[in-house]
Specification:
Structural class: mainly alpha
Distance between the termini: 60 Å
Order of helices and strands: HHHH
Helix content: 55-70%
Strand content: under 5%
Number of helices: 4
Number of strands: 0
Shape: flat
Low-confidence stretches: 105-110, 112-118
Amino acid sequence: MAKKTKTALRELVKALEKHQEVLEDKKSGHGKRDRATAKVRTAAIAYASAVYARNGGTSPFLDLPDPGLDESTVASLKAEKEALVAKQSQKKSSKHAAPEGNAPADEVAPAGEAAAAS
């Protein structure tokens, strides 16, 4: 595992442990629980991004349903995620196929030459 994925994993575990502590603390308010949940989500996204950057793997959290969402919303979110991944993959493959800035010389003329040619 690369250094970035190890760091992201450590941060995710740390966020999960803190989340568990906050949820078990009867004195924790709603806001504190929400912040702990947001940190877990952020850490999970960072970990999934590190995994994707490392080997192009899909998110290990992609198929985890949110118990607060109905099935149609989950299906819609999955479809949206798949579309974004496909678009990102297509963009990445086209970027490698034709690097920008390599236009043929006859298509792009420097400003001084365009005036001299007329």
